[in-house]
Amino acid sequence: MGLLTAGRPFTWKDSEPHRERVKRDGITQFLHAYEKVRDRRRPMLKWGDEVEYVLIKIDDTSKTARLCVRAPEVIEELQVAERLQISGESSDIIVETLWRPEYANWMVEGTPGTPYRSFIRDLTLVEKNMALRRAEIQGLLGDDELVLSLTAYPRLGCKQFTDPPKPVYGKYARSFYTSDMHINPHPRFPTLTRNIRLRRGSKVDVHMPLFMDENTPELLPVVCDECDPGCVMPPEEVTIDDHAYQKVEDACGEKKDDVYMDSMAFGMGCSCLQVTLQCTDIGECRHLYDQLHTVAPILLALTAACPAIRGYLLDTDVRWNIIAGSVDDRTPEEAMGAIGKSRYDSIDLYISDRKAMIPDIYNDIPIAVNENAYKRLREGGVDDRLAQHIAHLFIRDPLVIFEDHLEQDNETDMGHFENIQSTNWNTVRFKPPPPDSDIGWRTEFRSMEVQFTDFENAAFSIFIVLLSRVIIAFDLNLYMPISKVDENMQIAHERNAAESGRFYFRRNIFGEGPHKVPSFVCSCGHVHVPKFSWPSEFDDCGLPPDALELMTLDEIFNGTNLSGPNCNFAFPGFIPLIRTYLHALGTHADNQEIISKIGIYLDFVSDRANGKLWTTAKWMRHFVETHPSYRKDSKVTEEINYDLIREIEKLSRGEIEIPELLGSYFPKNKAGLNSAAELEKIRREVGSTDAKLRGASLFDRTGQR
After folding, report:
1. Is the N-terminal amide bond of 332 cis, ω within 30° of 0?
2. Which of the four, 71, 230, 380, 458, has the lowest number of CB atoms within 10 Å?
3. What pTM did the predictor assign?
4. Residue 370 CA neighbour count, 13 Å, CB half
5. How, if at all, do strands 162-163 and 64-68 pair?
6. 3-state DSSP call for residue 550?
7. For 341-378, how does the pLDDT look when each residue is reduced to its tens digit (9 = 90+)?
8. What is the per-residue pLDDT across 258-314, written as a single tens digit (0 to 9) for each?
9. In 3D, which of 671, 605, 516 has the Cα closest to residue 134?
């Protein structure tokens, strides 16, 4: 979440005359920006990660671990150094961490203060910077407060799940389970909450499958003791201003056969891990956007970390569909008609203009577009695929319009465009550069769930960066029909999908361009020269029947184990290709030492993919199911939750080992804690021998370095 704009938001009713204007001006702003930056090139890779943290309040006497809602005041303190730097009051201050608010008052978002560069040495800074972020938050907390990188708090929505407890059923969310006082006080967040509900005409309606154990009831009451009716706001304190209002007593006696959630807090109160990559130019950005979308479901499955919420074990392991439902503003007619997905979902179309992207084959699902926006974009010189992408974003209404920011200079501002762009929360995001900045075209990868330790979060962040370099350097072609990626997203939601799931994936991933990889070492230990049983260019018959194959994550990440060096086809696997790429960077001793360190992260990702190591979700589920007080009823009680949180705390601090989750990798390879000054010094130590994470320039047209 970027720096938030202060202002006075219109009510949903009062925003009606301005919504089309915001969309119209948003397109105008994009066209002006596009004209200015369409040819912008930034040859050097810059990138960054984003980790969302949660605050926990521990009571060892009552054995409770509840969400701590002090995040706004903690963020205020964390941002002091940044404000001093921006104001110029302190010229020698070093800002190595940046802090932003998130939706819920228990959440803190942290990013590196300076983008990482293309030098391979910068990869060694990632875990160190994450460790500094964690330490800076913890330094502002009390002895009974913790900071954790936890995707979903298991008892979110239970009775008194925050400290201090807050009254539920407020005027913004109307939730039986969460409080309006859980929402960040910046006007953007409560306004989003209310306007999503008002636009759709009802409270959000989220249903997740309940894990059925021996003693799990077949039906769960909507209103029960966990809803804490004693905390419900008295009727006179609630302004009834919409037809979505539903009294608690109206739902008494109603039961559901799943885990029901009714507010934005259930989804946007979850945490994630994201990576943003600056590309060389708009063409590379569009290509990377497409290619990374195909791997979004498999990274979601591999980082699965949400097996429980609202005090129940789920029959799924990931957060994605919870968030999608929690911000779904579609009316029933729209959901049944042309708008097939929530604002938070996987993308609907590829946008690259390269030859390998064959729209008739790959963009195979129907999409709605804002026809007026599309017409203006095409008239403004935007090509068909990019115009469809932008016009598809603009089928959505602006959910928050600030009265004092309605008037904007469309030639220099991007506020109205970002109003729509930033509330299309997809697996990947195509990010045009602000015209008045030095920033390049960027692609944001958004599907991963945050992990317990800085080691894990660094490993997956570095993996995504290196995979992006391999995609570009080796000219990989990961295209498959969008419909198959959508199927993969649902496969990723299956319980234990990382081990037992089989995902559609392309068998021939090597392109025929000038940067084709000359050879690779597969998991059998032999060197292979890519050869294929079918061509990479398709004829009029469309996609060959053997183009896609159902693969395990082990096969996708580690490759197919072959018996000999000569074969007609070999699926290489991402990890072997990344190792081939790193080897091609150079053999100088300084680089080899760094590559060896990076190899530890790759080994970890490889072992997670082959099933030697459990996902976070599998370990959490196992902890609950084997807890002495678990009654085989799918319930995560206060006692179980307290012990779980304490165990996660000890692991994140490196005080214990959990071999099933991290093998011997952690805390053995835990990064030490460095100050901001020490991190800056490491960055300045880059020398002439340091390799760069090169893209298309890694191989020349003959396939040599």
Report:
1. no
2. 230
3. 0.94
4. 20
5. parallel
6. strand
7. 999 999 999 999 999 999 999 999 999 999 999 999 99
8. 999 999 999 999 999 999 999 999 999 999 999 999 999 999 999 999 999 999 999
9. 671
